[in-house]
Design brief:
By secondary structure, the chain is mainly β. The protein has helices spanning 34-41, 74-88, 107-110, 114-124, 165-173, 272-285, and strands at 54-64, 93-97, 102-105, 111-112, 130-135, 137-138, 143-146, 151-155, 198-199, 202-203, 238-244, 250-254, 308-310, 315-316, 323-327, 335-341, 349-355, 359-362, 370-378, 389-394, 407-413, 417-418, 422-429, 433-441, 446-454, 457-464, 471-479, 482-491.
Amino acid sequence: MIKNYALLLLALWVSGSVFAQDIHPCGTGDYRSEWFDHYHDHKELYRTNSDDTLYLPVQIHVVGTDEGGGYFPPKSVIESFCKLNEDFAHSNIQFYMSDEWNYINNSNYYDHNFQQGSQMMAQNNVSNTINCYIVLSPAGNCGYYSPGRDGIALNKGCLGLYSSTWAHEIGHFLSLPHPFVGWEGEDDVDYDEPAPNFVNGRQVERVDGSNCDDAADRFCDTSPDYLSFRWNCNMNDSSNVLQTDPNGETFRSDGSLIMSYSNDACAKRFSDEQIDAMRANIQFQRPNLIASAFIPQLITSDASLEVIESPAPDEMVSTFDEVTLDWEDVPNASNYLVQVSRIPVFTLLLEEYVVSSSELTLDNLEEDRPYWWRVKPFNAYESCVEFIDSSTFSTGTISNISILEQATALKVFPNPVSQGGAWQISLQLSQADRVGIRLFAIDGRLVFSDEQQLGSGRQEFTVSSQALSDGMYILELNLPKGRLHRKLNVTR
């Protein structure tokens, strides 16, 4: 699925707001294919034979700038793919990664208009797969499906563990229109007034269901919806906006439907009729995608499983310019995501790699530093497994002087400390030194920095928790020949 390579990423990538005001939810538009209308007019011709799970191949294209920057991080790709399969689980449609991810360095594709997006797909589409391009901005949308190129573009800021954007666009790929089809682009609407009978040539669906077979999305188990903008739902997964149909009946849109424009907290399902249409589309319109011989391989998702072999936990390795990380093979895993961090939490990464073997050699570490690393197995289908093991080691120097020779018996008390209180830091120094003191929040932000001249022997100083919120922090002591870290906690 992904060949043996190591991908170095900048860890300071920060995604944009998932639904910023200038990002349109979907650029697919008023789309109802000729096949879709024929399906609804002749459903007797499209009877599916089985409810067996259909496995479909996906080719993932990760797009960056001309310089190779801005890639969607591997961890985020894996998590988003997991969410995609979760969204389709009820439909018995599942997806697998057909090949290694295709990395494209092209700034015009990274932030593109529809013409550039069409060119991107024409040049890079792989036949007999669902081609999905993860970019910075797909023509100002969270995503779109291009019927002309038969490809999908996805905004990296609109993907993640809680987003249904990917599922929404594959819904379009498999023939589904929006439930509000016809209302796209209608921004100036008085919903207190009865809606017209037609909008942009489409019948407007009525609450009584009298025209549900022909109006809007032509599904009778999706209720009327006239909202073509991103909207929040209430406790019942319904729109806060009360709309009025042509008969004067009021209603609220169903926010649970993935093909609607409700926010991600609401969107969670496809209706039964939508599922029937997608399965018919696959079996009659796209049979080339069906992988009849594909058998999903599941990975043991035991987060307590110890698989790391070397370096041993807390080991001081003899060098820093070539350190090999080694772990046991995980059954059914074809690839591993490896994260390396300079602090015990992985919110601010130093590096992130994807490899196909159970070892990785690092050649760009610094001397006399502690490092933390962890491993997440996955394969073409199984991407929902948690990180299964983590460990720490310290690098050496040419003379291999241990950090413990210069600072031992580090103690912090009280820990946890109450808000507004102070930690008492105590450590033993073999000689007088200047000690840099830094405190990081769990997200990697530096919240405190100081430097003190300390003498030899047992030394003590305090660090205040004043103005800190409750939670975990990382204390870093910078010494001339290394760094020491401790987890600190603040409680209310």
